[in-house]
Amino acid sequence: MEHALLQDMEILFGLAVATVVLFRRLMFPSIIGFLAAGILAGPHTLGLIQNIHQVEQMAEIGVVLLLFTIGIEFSLKELMRIKHLVLLGGGLQVGLTILLTALLGVAFQFSVQQSIFFGFLVALSSTAILMKLLMDAGETDAPHGKISMGILIFQDLCVVPLMLFVPFLSGGGDGLTGILTVCAKAAAVVLVAHYGARFLVPWIFGQVVKVRSRELFLLTILFIGFGTAWITAQVGLSLALGAFIAGLAISESDYSHQALGDIMPFRDAFMSLFFISVGMLLDPAILLKHPLLIASLVVAIILIKTLVATGAAMSLGISMRIALTSGLAISQIGEFSFVLCQSGLTAGLLSPDLYQIFLAASVATMGLTPFCLKYSAPLAERVVAVLPRVLTRGRGVLARREQRMTLSDHVIIVGYGLNGRNLARVLNHFKIAHVVIETNPFTVKTERRKGTPIIFGDGSGSEILSHANIDRARIIVVAISDAPSSRRIAAQARLMNPAIHVIVRTRYILEMEPLYKLGVNEVIPEEFETSIEILSRVLRKYLLTHDEIERCVSQVRSDSYEMFRTMSRKHSHAVGISGFLTGAELGTFRVGPSSPLVGTSLREGILRERSGATLLMIKRGNEVIPNPDPVWEIRENDIVLILGTPEQLAAAAALFEHGT
Description:
The chain is α/β, with parallel strands linked by helices and 660 residues long. It has three domains: 63-384, Na+/H+ antiporter like fold (Up-down Bundle); 411-576, Rossmann fold; 585-657, Alpha-Beta Plaits (2-Layer Sandwich). The protein is 66% helix and 7% strand. It contains 27 helices and ten strands. Strands 3-2-1-4-5-6 form a six-stranded parallel beta sheet, with helices on both faces. Strands 7-10-8-9 form a four-stranded antiparallel beta sheet, covered by helices on one side. The N and C termini lie far apart (84 Å). The model is unreliable at 396-400 and 573-580 (pLDDT under 50).
């Protein structure tokens, strides 16, 4: 039939739009919608597609583009930064999953080769689904997000070797000689790609960029990617390996970011066809034929992957709560397992019935991923609450028993990311005692060598906070990206030291009220602070004066933070002056040399007259004078503590700093 392919594409994309919209409203990943569209259009249900082979060929392009973009995104520098997490954590997860699955396969009377192949299929998780869900939830920087990402990176690296070994498991290779031959060919291609990345690829892109044509740049990317894939296929390797190597070659060039941005829309379109084609292969009748078997397989896959990943993370010293959350997050079957599955079907490692059963179970695990991620933290908390602390705190080879520190009147920093590092650096500069609590054992090990006062552990545990002398600390700053953990830490800190000042960094304004309910003194929402910074920079570009910008920012802060303070007062259980003052703030200023306050006494009332603020305390050198007498004279370099509204503090700042 004329234009049959165009008709098939129109049917598939139309179904995909409808199903993805429906599944997204039900909070399922888009991939589940694509699979459902394929099931509906496939020969086992409505039979709407005439030429399935052509669709599969286009889907194979999607696989090539996926590996190509993974190669471009792959960074050797990033790998070296988290090499322990990737190589040890990911290696243990993949290796143990393959081993455990293979043993179970042999126990159920499958051949050793088939059982190992089953391990290949189960070991891989879905990077596409999990990364999307973590980004939507804002948890990519959370501890469980980082661990999941490290394991996924290793799994992506394993895809190509696993694909190379499939023919040998089926007996199609030449034994050890064949394996060595394939490895030698792969090494030769990698070597050529390496030198091509250093010399040939930059030269090609340099010539193309001079033409200043985006279309030509895109064609060059596709030429390099598909060309390398075709060459590897000609020497007996897979298209996927060639695509990955081509991506690696481009990743080392200065044009990798632009190349990735240009190729992503094509990858997404063709990858949708890949998942649709997988759905077309699934026969829904298999669900009626083997419902208990498929359900049991789904449960077994989730349990095996969760337990293995949890054990792998805990062996590195990660606490059980974080490890179990990560394990549940990666408990689904990955998209590359479908690629391996089709190779296994062709190689005779899977029968048609086993293939259908595996497809059904895989789609089910993918569909359950949002629920696994949503309920992983509460489940992990319940498990940790039941088990003894000695089993859950994380005791790997990289962890060691923490000794109680001899600190008092210090700051406790929970989390050593960007915010924690910057705060610690400033505290060091001003010689303010502090201690850091961090869950990443590799960060702890590195920072200890630098002399950083750092404790390994989960800050929500009373034992770790006790080691940090929370009963004698002045402030605790929770600077992590995990909202549930922040709430647990704040609650535990307030319980152990009712007088401590609790400051929590959070991503969104919606997360503030639950923290205030727990007795947090100050919550810093990144969402709001980012909007303030954007406002300030926009006004600066329009050449508004510093004072005008400060007044605008002060007004926005006053209006917005009054709402935040209302929440704080409503739920405040904290001890301190801020809970009893409505609309007032405390500010600390240094008296500048050109300030009109220099040489004046408090009796003259210049500060009160010009700003409306009230002076509460003066610090001069090492001497601190609370509630100074009216005859007290202000001098240069005095540090004063004043009380007032945000507008009054802004006016006072001008008096101290600018002398207006």
